[in-house]
Write a structure and sequence with these properties.
single chain; alpha/beta; Leucine Aminopeptidase, subunit E, domain 1; Aminopeptidase; 2 domains; nine-stranded mixed sheet; six-stranded mixed sheet; 16 helices; 20 strands; elongated; binds ligand BES; binds magnesium ion; binds zinc ion
């Protein structure tokens, strides 16, 4: 896809669809908006006068025109009130615009940024948000469709009212492309079927992704090496599957004495629940139980593409959780890499076990900060619905930084507590700790409390993305299917991490 930024009113572009935004309460189009309206016989101003279109958020006015023998459509996209319009809403509208352009069978889109819009926002963030929203909104997972009837947008031109903002807008736009591409990498992995996306295949996909990015190095810890390192919590989950597990380690700018910021992502390529097997309904969704792993891979991709300062690592434990004659049993006791013994209670709480060893490994690599992300508990959906991910951790500065970032990205996070009371619920009669609490209360908190036992004293944040694992419908930049929500939070965090004493 060709994407460019130009100065001018965009009407000279050979685009089939022209997009322009309109704030709520507009009475008379001026500037670019008037020029466009004039091309379509004042349909916009007529409908404004009649009170039919007034720029309310999500209101879309589609009109058609012919100019110089060239037919085109204009999408006037309502932005809502200027006072409340932020970058999250811009992404949302941009996502809707790209799908509207697809339904008009347009391959060339011209987005007109008029003075009203550019005057209301920071040029860098405007370029970033519009680009991100547009590219995320047009995402479709069509890999396994035999016939692809959808229109593909092959060109997008942003036409700016003012030449003054072109540099900053373009810089933001370039960042937006990288962020959207990263989200798409993660969404593709999360949507992939579990017979194809096995632990081994995930490793191969990582190698493919980073083939042309030499600044990221890849280390693969196989079963034999994991055994040597004492990762029995990780290996115990994998033992029920015929597929071999891998601990994938991606490093960017990591030298011997580096103290990298480490991302850890849950990589269960399919979660049946194991011997504590899940009910049949919706079990297919558990193909996305590796979304955390996909998200940290995508974050490293963006970090490298953005040539970020600092040292970063991603650790991804990859397993399949299966029931079999060789599977882990409730009652088993395993020893994690840090020497802690764990009594297995419910084999469906597998995520925390593989994360325990991945966190220990990250600590052993000198991590200065730990951020894990995982589709960890159904309880997170009970607590928060699908509106936000849960965030918990031992460092309030890091949590605050994620909260700030989420207000810009739109990937909402909501803090849940890590009280000492939750540790009491994890007491075991026979091992150092039991790996889950059998009751239903506080499921997200007890899971995080378990993880805390494996981070030592390292500043750490845990993101439970089970609640936002999938989108049920197309809405703005969110597309029905597996969501990979949280990728942009991780990348923005890497761009500007919390400063710790
Ligand atoms: N992968 C699931 C959590 C999940 C559920 C993610 C639904 C997305 C949607 C996780 O491995 C799991 O099964 N957790 C159990 C834990 C319980 C046994 C303590 C759960 O949430 O029921
Ligand atoms: Mg499970
Ligand atoms: Zn799981």
């Amino acid at each position: 896809m060709k994407i460019q930024v130009k100065q001018g009113n965009g009407l000279e572009e050979a685009a089939q669809v022209v997009v322009v935004t309109v704030f709520e309460g507009v009475t008379k189009p001026t500037g670019f908006l008037k020029e466009i309206d004039d091309r379509v016989n004042q349909q916009l101003s007529t409908l404004i006068k009649r009170g039919i279109f007034f720029g309310k958020q999500d209101q879309v006015l589609t009109v058609h025109g012919v100019y110089d023998k060239h037919a085109f459509s204009v999408l006037f996209m309502g932005l809502g009130k200027k006072e409340t319009c932020d970058y999250v809403r811009l992404r949302h509208i941009a996502g809707n615009a790209s799908r509207a352009a697809i339904s008009l069978k347009s391959s060339e889109v011209s987005w007109i940024v008029d003075a009203e819009l550019s005057g209301s926002f920071d040029a860098f963030k405007l370029g970033q948000s519009l680009t991100e929203g547009f590219l995320m909104g047009k995402y479709q997972y069509t890999t396994y469709k035999s016939s692809d009837e959808t229109t593909h947008i092959s060109g997008l031109t942003f036409s700016l009212d003012s030449g003054k903002i072109k540099n900053e807008f373009t810089r933001g736009h370039t960042k937006g492309i990288i962020l959207a591409e990263s989200v798409i990498i993660a969404r593709d992995l999360a949507n992939a079927p579990p017979n194809v996306l096995t632990p081994k295949h995930f490793v191969e996909e990582a190698k493919k992704t980073f083939k042309k990015i030499p600044s990221v190095s890849i280390e693969v810890i196989d079963k034999k090496k994991a055994l040597k390192l004492g990762m029995h919590a990780f290996l115990g989950v994998a033992q029920g599957s015929v597929l071999d597990p891998y601990m994938l380690v991606l490093s960017y700018n990591v030298q011997k004495k580096s103290t990298p910021i480490c991302f850890v992502g849950k990589g269960v390529t399919f979660d049946t629940g194991g011997i504590s097997i899940k009910p049949a309904a919706k079990m297919q969704d558990m193909k996305a139980d590796m979304t955390g792993g996909a998200s940290v891979l995508a974050a490293l991709y963006a970090i490298a593409r953005l040539e970020s300062k600092g040292s970063f690592m991603a650790v991804i434990p990859l397993v399949e959780n299966m029931p079999s004659g060789n599977a882990q049993r409730p009652g088993d006791i395993v020893t994690a890499m840090n020497g802690k013994t764990i009594e297995i209670i419910n084999t469906d709480a597998e995520g925390r076990l593989i994360l325990a060893d991945a966190l220990c490994y990250a600590v052993s690599q000198g991590a200065s900060q730990l951020i894990d992300i995982a589709t960890l508990t159904g309880a997170c959906s009970v607590a928060l619905g699908s509106a936000a991910a849960g965030i918990l951790g031992n460092n309030q500065n890091m949590i605050h930084r994620f909260e700030e970032i989420s207000h810009f990205t739109g990937e909402k996070v909501w803090q849940l507590p890590l009280y000492e009371e939750y540790l009491e619920l994890l007491k075991s009669d026979v091992a150092d700790i039991s790996h889950c609490y059998e009751g239903r209360e506080g499921g997200t908190c007890t899971a995080a409390k378990f993880l805390e036992q494996f981070v030592d004293k390292t500043p750490w944040v845990h993101l439970d993305i089970a609640s936002v694992m999938m989108y049920k419908e197309n809405k703005g930049y969110r597309v029905k299917g597996m969501a990979a929500e949280g990728v942009r939070n991780l990348i923005e965090y890497a761009c500007q991490p919390a400063l710790l004493k």
